[in-house]
Write a structure and sequence with these properties.
It contains no helices and eleven strands. Strands 2, 4, 5, 6, 9, 10 and 11 form a seven-stranded mixed β-sheet that branches. The chain starts with a strand and ends with a strand.
C-alpha cells in the first residue's frame, strides 16, 4: 500500500522549533521530488519547500527562507522539515507530497500525506 505519513506537528511558542517527518511506505522516495505544503484555515494550500531527486537541490517559499530546512534520508525513506524561529503565521496543517519530475512549489503531487497540525501560539 502506497502511503505517506507526516508526524512531528504540535503546539509551540513563537520563536520555537519543530521537526516534521514525512515517511513513505509502499514506494521509494528516492525517485520523487518531495514537497512540503501548508494550509491555514480559510486559505489556499501553499508550497513551503521542496527537495529534488538526484543532487537534492532545495527550494523554499520566501516566507520561510532562512528559517526552515528540508532534508531527506533515503536509507529511512523519510523527508524532514526542520522549522526554526516559528511565527504565529506559520500555523497551518502541513502536508508532504511526492511528485514525479522536478520540484515545484505549487500543490501538485502523485501521493499525499494526511497532514499534521502545527500551531504557533503563546
Amino acid at each position: 500500500q502506497v502511503q505517506l505519513v507526516e508526524s512531528g506537528g504540535g503546539l509551540v511558542q513563537p520563536g520555537g522549533s519543530l521537526r516534521l517527518s514525512c515517511a513513505a511506505s509502499g514506494f521509494t522516495l528516492d525517485y520523487y521530488a518531495i514537497g512540503w505544503f501548508r494550509q491555514a484555515p480559510g486559505k489556499e494550500r501553499e508550497g513551503v519547500s521542496c527537495i529534488s531527486i538526484g543532487n537534492g537541490s532545495t527550494y523554499y517559499a520566501d516566507s520561510v527562507k532562512g528559517r526552515f530546512t528540508i532534508s531527506r534520508d533515503n536509507a529511512k525513506n523519510t523527508v524532514y522539515l526542520q522549522m526554526n524561529s516559528l511565527k504565529p503565521e506559520d500555523t497551518a496543517v502541513y502536508y508532504c507530497a511526492a511528485k514525479f519530475g522536478i520540484c515545484v512549489l505549487t500543490p501538485v503531487g502523485e501521493y499525499w500525506g494526511q497532514g499534521t497540525q502545527v500551531t504557533v501560539s503563546s
